[in-house]
Design a protein that fits this description.
Layout lengths: L1 E6 L3 H13 L3 E7 L2 H11 L3 E5 L7 H10 L5 E6 L4 H10 L1 E6 L4 H34 L12 H11 L6 H16 L8 H11 L7 H29 L4 H10 L2 H12 L11 H21 L1
Parallel strand pairs: 1-2, 1-3, 3-4, 4-5
Helix pairs in contact: 2-3, 6-7, 7-8, 7-9, 7-12, 8-9, 9-10, 9-11
């Protein structure tokens, strides 16, 4: 059963959400807070799986609270609730790491539908982890000592690459891994298929109903865009500190457009308000695919 945290300055909303979650059998509420700063403390203490958080709060808004929590290593899923319909604000919430958005006033049916989807995704992820762990143990049992050193999987090859770019824990990184696994198994050409096709392929990997594939494909696109933007910001910040840093020299020109890197470095250096995210996703995926397949070939030929 999932554990939930609720952060909302409206006590009535907190009670309603807790009732919907617990009476509907969606999970257990392990912590509630009436402000962003209080929520930050409560969530770090209780570490729920999912946080339902209000966008607008007087002391510290939901976006700022999420950013602060992620900086401190908290890795739960976020569901934003708000009366705001401003697309720019909602976009910022998604960039901060929000995966779902619920419109106020609170509607029981909508809350149950969204949180059921969160629950479903969590269960699928957990099942896949358990299957992978079981297969790993079985593999080790049937492997002789002389063969214990195995070829790395696509995910193991990608791990240090994602770590170098500062996105190893991002939600979109899981989508990137799914895409690379699909491409290395089923795609033989040097180029990659259209992005929409890749996003919908990942959606089907999540065992989505065909009617929901297009919608989930758009969610995959948003998550990947946020993650690639985070990678750009990370690499740009390395370049600002040390232009000759090996990570900057390798990733900046390979994975990103020169002007995008320069613009992000200028933005960080001047501490200016971030512009609307612009990054070449196709180039990023193409280079990642080539780098992963190159490392696979070198390992299998070694």
């Amino acid at each position: 059963m999932l554990s939930f945290g609720i952060v909302d300055d409206d006590a009535v909303s907190r009670r309603m959400l807790q009732k919907i979650i617990e009476k509907g059998g969606l999970g257990e509420v392990v912590g509630t807070a009436g402000s962003g700063s209080e929520g930050e403390k409560v969530l770090l203490e209780t570490t729920p799986d999912v946080v339902v958080i209000d966008l607008l709060m007087p002391d510290q808004d939901g976006i700022e609270t999420i950013i602060r929590l992620k900086e401190q290593g908290y890795q739960g899923k976020y569901v934003m609730i708000s009366q705001i319909e401003n697309k720019e604000m909602i976009g910022k919430a998604y960039q901060a790491g929000v995966e779902f958005y619920i419109q106020k006033p609170i509607n029981k049916i909508e809350v149950e539908a969204v949180l059921s989807k969160v629950n479903e995704q969590w269960n699928i992820s957990r099942s896949l982890r358990e299957i992978k762990e079981s297969l790993t143990k079985l593999s080790l049992l049937h492997t002789g000592p002389e063969n214990i050193r195995k070829k790395r999987s696509v995910r193991e090859i990608m791990q240090p690459i994602l770590m170098d770019m500062g996105i190893v824990g991002d939600t979109g990184s899981r989508d990137l891994m799914d895409i690379m696994e699909h491409l290395t198994r089923h795609h033989k050409a040097e180029g990659i298929p259209p992005l929409k096709e890749l996003y919908e392929t990942v959606s089907r990997c999540h065992k989505m109903k065909e009617a929901d594939v297009e919608k989930e494909g758009k969610a995959v696109e948003q998550r990947i865009r946020r993650t690639v933007m985070a990678a750009l910001a990370h690499i740009a910040s390395i370049g600002l500190t040390d232009y000759s840093n090996p990570k900057f020299e390798h990733y900046a020109p390979l994975y990103f457009e020169f002007q995008d890197v320069r613009m992000k470095m200028k933005e960080i250096d001047e501490n200016s308000k971030p512009e609307k995210g612009k990054v070449n996703i196709k180039k990023f995926l193409q280079v990642l695919y080539l780098e992963v397949t190159d490392k696979m070939r070198s390992e299998y030929s070694g």
